[in-house]
Design a protein that fits this description.
The structure holds two protein chains of two kinds.
Chain A: H1 2-44, H2 47-52, E1 56-57, E2 62-63, H3 66-97, H4 100-115, H5 118-141, H6 150-174, H7 178-186, H8 191-202, H9 204-220, H10 223-228, H11 246-253, H12 261-295
Antiparallel strand pairs in A: 1-2
Chain B: H1 2-23, H2 29-33, H3 49-80, H4 86-100, H5 103-117, H6 123-148, H7 152-159, H8 164-174, H9 176-191, H10 197-200, H11 218-226, H12 231-265
Helix pairs in contact in B: 1-12, 3-6, 3-9, 3-11, 4-6, 5-6, 6-9, 7-8, 9-12, 11-12
Amino acid sequence: MRLLRAVKDKTARYIMLGIAIFTILFLIVIGVSLFFKALPIMKEKSLWILLTSANWKPFKGDYGFLPFIFSTFYVSLIAIIIALPFSILTSIYLNSYASKNVKRLFEPIVDLLSGIPPVIYGVWGTLTIVPLIANKIAPRFVAFSSGYTVLAGGIVLAVMIIPLLISIMVEVFRSIPKEMTDASLSMGATKWQTVKKVILRKSVSGIIAATVLALSRAFGETMAVLMVCGNITQIPHSIFDACYPLPALIANNYGEMLSMPSYESALMFSAFLLFIIVVLFNGLSRFTLNQIERRYQF
Amino acid sequence: MICAAMIILGVLVYIIATVFYRGLPALNLDMITKLPGGGFYLGKEGGVLNAIVGSLYIMIGSLIISILISVPLVMFVNFYLPPKSVFAFLIRFSLDILFGIPSIVYGAFGFALMIYLGIRASLLGGILTVAMLIMPIMMRSFDEITRLLSRDLPDALLSLGATKYEMVKVILRQLMPGLVTAILLAIGRGIGDAATVLFTAGYTDNIPASLNQPAATLPLSIFFQLGSPVEEVQNRAYASAIILTVIILILSFSARYFSSKFSKNKI
């Protein structure tokens, strides 16, 4: 009887250990297999040409990823520029000003926003943002715009990353010891001064980490961006031009292009690129956030 | 600051209102009880039952896989490893990174894996890929809830002479509401994601009868219908969007309900 219990315990432990090792290895497996899938194209063309050439003619064997990489960064940057002020202000409000009831109201709102599927954001974008840009905003600046633009992608993405930014920033602000803000307030500083000089200054690294995390989320967002940003292979010159980010490229072409091995490999290369960027950004910001969490644990 | 907060609240309302405003006229019982009929994509009769059932099948399959993997893992990290262990840190760190990997990368990887294993775009492929996507979500939220559990319960169990395995079985019962919350969150993310199933699950007008057949999914059905030039079909996309939004709303609120229940029952 005692033996049976011990055996059960041991078996369970080894199974769990196996699963744990599998989880860590899984990340490496994804990276390595994407790399090997991307290898043929990297052998064919130098990495430098792949990354900096704007010449995209798969049927002639030219694979320049610059338009896609540039579009990805452009859209994400616009999204961050729009999302950051809203998220910082809202998180400060929720942390230092809002009453308990408001906080309780906002939690499900942030949850809901982050829970809405990308496709719904895409539907919303095509219904409201795209016509808004085409009819109202763009005519003031350029002669013609279809509305399916960098700006549309940026706005939709901004709404999608705001919940992520808010939830992390609220955590970061919360990790600041209450003694510090109390000390500032008791010295006669106003609430706003305390926010500016204590809370914001103390949480710069956290805000940066949150931004980088949100940026990496924005890089990989597929469906919503694909639906609103036009998908024309070009280097967008202004925010009123259409663009074609990397995830959209994969989503639009993968699966149909298996007859051309080099095309498939090129698409795998873009998946690998995304993977590397996201893992790097994620790793860095998660590391910083962990550090912050640990520093203020008491 | 109140303005910023109000704008965010406004955007949420705006999104839901837009979808409902455009979709409600096209929403009827046929949408959720019928398969797409002949000429469905030209605006003739039919519904999106194939997509609803397909999404459901994929979610059930991937949930089974991911529960089987995430529950033991979370238990291992929390109760088998010492609190400050490097191994536990490594696991949590890689979970964080896995959590951040975009769904399109999972989709591409899943597809490459399927080719390697010789599986065609099918229910099975969709299940495997969605499982990859939702596993980190489930593990992370379950882990966070498990960490909140006070150490007294495990200590008491161990001092009564239970083995660790027996201890975990008792603790799991205590953590059940937390697990349900984690599962609901994972479903919410998995059911709405289109990029993972785009290449791996395929698309069909029928309900899949076996694991080897392709399966339709709700987000993809919205996406394809929206791409049609026919207005009735587009309106149906909005109606399908309502169905998906309602599912998500229900999931989100029940997750909230369960997690509040959990904090009430905490020892």
